[in-house]
Amino acid sequence: MNCIELSQQADQIASTFSKQDLAKLVLALKDSPRSLQCAVEVIDTLDSRSGCTLDEAWDEVLAGDSQLQVANEE
Question: 72 or 10: whose pLDDT is higher?
Answer without folding.
Answer: 10
